[in-house]
Queue: 3 jobs
Job 1
Amino acid sequence: MHRLTPLILAAVALLAIGCGREGASESRGSAQRTLTIGAIPDQDPQELQRLYGVVADQLQRELGVKVDYRPVTDYTAAVTAFRVGDLDLVWFGGLTGVQAQRQVPGARSLAQRDIDTNFHSVFIANRRSGLEPVENQSGLRALAGRTFTFGSQNSTSGRLMPQFFLAQAGVPPQQFEGAPGFSGAHDRTIELVEAGAYEAGALNEQVWREALEEGEADRERVREIWRSPAYNDYQWIARADLDERLGDGFTERARTALLNIDGNSAQEKQILELFGAGGFVPVRPGDHREIVRAGETTGLLQK
């Protein structure tokens, strides 16, 4: 009996190792069947949690894998998480989308909202500033010597394109009174300008319109003074390794699932309402060419 003890112990040890390997394999397999989604934090975190929670439920049902929404702290964090593989599918703005695709070879644009093909930035001003609406881009020269806030430093509609249009009008950032501010989010830009912390600012036209419709912007204290020319903005971008991790054809299935959100179910209708869109459409080659040009001109993208 004593001579058998080492053999028994060895067998138990091998069994434990085998079970451990099997458990680890199952854990890895489970992780490999999870799609992690994210988005640039361009609005209030609670609003984003509500929106992408619904999106995760929709994609989970359509794609047959677990879908987790993971919030990030800022725009740069969204790009970084995508680059290192912590996020598989991300709702990027135009600028962050270009940054992400440059950092992740093979990353693929899947869809954009119908409104993103004809998007605008809105310049707003506190009524006490005396700034009046302008008819054309050259009128932005009235902002020289004023206090001004952008949104996030990497926002397309709240920083990149406004800075690009301002530069074209002869108003580079150094012509503002003091350094320009960065509110961090579009709705925050409205709050700061309305409160008089800044005389003027620029933001996403969709957030501005919704703030007016919902009474969250006081028309007696803040108003629109100029609307920019159109450009392409937001887009869903997927990592290049989705098919390898989640099965052949998965990326195309994800693209189809997004494009098929048409509002025919209560959940799809909610998604479109929260996105402020009528549906999703394909991203065509060259759609974000203007973003690249503006980024390289302003120095926010390396040539």
Job 2
Amino acid sequence: MKNLDKYLSLLNNEVNGLLLTSRYARHYGAEFDIAEGVAIVSKKGCRYFTDSRYIESAEKGIQGFEVLPINQFTGFVKRINDAIEDFGITTLGFEEKYLSVEELMGYERELHAKLVPFNKEIYGFRGIKEEWELDLMRKAQEITDKAFSEVITRIKPGMTELQLQAELIYCLYKNGGQGLSFDPIVVSGPNTSLPHGVAGERVIQEGDFVTMDFGCLYHGYCSDMTRTVAVGYATEEMKTVYSTVLAAQLAGIAVTKAGTIGRDIDAAARKVITDAGYGQYFGHGYGHSLGLEVHEGPNPNPGNANPMPAGAVCSAEPGIYIPGKFGVRIEDVTIVKEDGCEIITGSPKNLIIV
């Protein structure tokens, strides 16, 4: 089933049109990425509106939608109202997660249809990926693995975190990345105790852990991985913490399959860390789903009491973070299947000393 058909299946007498304003919903419905635009979906017709910067690409790449330009004389509101009239739309489901209050108030004031919050329904299909989506994500992870294998050869004492971050970004693009899933996290030494630390001028030294959390975009789909490596040597404590995190990740992966409750996957990994005496140093969830966005649902974390579905793509990323000393996180991406999960991250997980 094409993604547009999934959106059309949401429509009924109560909600007979969709207003797609986020890049992610537009990309999903049109199966084509345009930076800016708005789309209307109805059973009587679908239209995609964008400006002169993207109109040629949209006309060539988008199927299933009539593509129309907007400009200073004919803006989004005029185009949407024309579609409302032409298609007999009375109620538009919209993405409340992605509209600002100002935008919503403007649409409510100007549009000739009732607006109904509909983000959950519009978003819901994305939790289970089609096989072609999985192939794109496998390719994104392949690019990310190649970047990791190159960047670890460039880590040297004396370089700064920012310099290493620049090398990492270069390697992602060099190997085929079409963008970044998110701003990379590159931290070293005591900064590795910051799960989402920001690269700075700190100089990497012998005996440091270096944590790199990064990913790329490939045809709009995200990759995500984290590796922690040691520079020069690792102390026994560093090795113990690393092996504990790896054991926790493997425990979570072992129970990941369709039908397993999200929080139970987290619990399997968390038990390993807690039993080792580091429970207070693991503050975040085991993982998150990803796709067109690097953080999607459903999530294998303590807040999810629902079973994970086959076709979900989720990270496996437990960590231990000891303030003032160091931290370790190891992250792979997995595809949930009926009988287990497929790990699509190919980089080694043994402790690498560079």
Job 3
Amino acid sequence: MALEAFYHSESFAKPEDIAQEISTRAQDCLEAMGKFAALKYELSDRVGMDASKTGNGPKQKDDPVVAEIGPQKVLKSGLDMIIEEQIELKISQFAAYLPDDELKKKKEELLKQYTTDQQRQLFLNQYIVTELLYRKARESGVSDDPKLRAALKDMERAMLAQKVMERQFADEIKITPADIQTYYNAHKNEYIQPERARISHMLVKDKEAANAIRERLKKGEAFGALASELSQDSSTGKKSGEISGWVERREKGFITGIGGAKDAMRIIFSTDKDKICKEDIETDDGVHIVKVLDREPERQKGFDEVKDDVSITLRAAKEREVQQGLFSRLKDQYNVVIHQSAFKGEKKSPEELKPGQKQM
């Protein structure tokens, strides 16, 4: 490991001869690994710098005790390390789907949650509660319960299996920006934005009520004002009848506030922008009068717009390939035989009785 080598190199020369170079290289390694807590103490203890400053400053050798549990002392630096470990555990679930720079950015954002003394003390209190309960459980023999031990064993098995899979992904999956661009070019038809519209509506109980409102609209009353006054949809009525988000044109689409009415798509997408639909949309809830606020034609989404989605899709495809390959190799390695007929309650066919044949 490079970091270990830099520390080890101190033994081959006087510290003052190489101290600055080793410190610089060590800091680069820690930052590259995302070890921000370790970097902080590397700066303050080894280099004599405050991690929050860029200039030289007095050495900070103090590492105060923040808590004591009997003879055990929790140092401030130790608390920082515990916080960072917990954060790394949280973001590990995203490791397979985000590039290293994004993971590092996410980690920095989470670390910012513990920049104040109050936040750090809350974390420390929770850590101590968990530690005390853990110790009590060990002393009282809770860990000897057979059911609990079996559950812990299952958790260990699942975690180890997941770790093996993650390492396999890391070894075999190397996705470059060029790979993402190539996949996008080959699957452009999967990244098309359908024709879409933004709409407002007002819901009334029947056609008679709808016709009365249309008469008022013809006389020049504002659609939004009538929606606020008369719509039975209270959630959109407060917003002049506007339905949040876009309605995408699909053969069978669900429209918020309206549902999946049979003729809804035809009626909406045969109406121009800023116009009220000539036909009402009838549903089990009542009759909807709709106004089209905006419309956009179908378009091809650009690469920059969808590259994150493309990356996730490409990685998922590669993960399936790696999983299938690994499982196939492991089945051969551990001589796995699955007897499908045992689950169907069927007698073995003549084919199954051939010597040496394995049913997989």
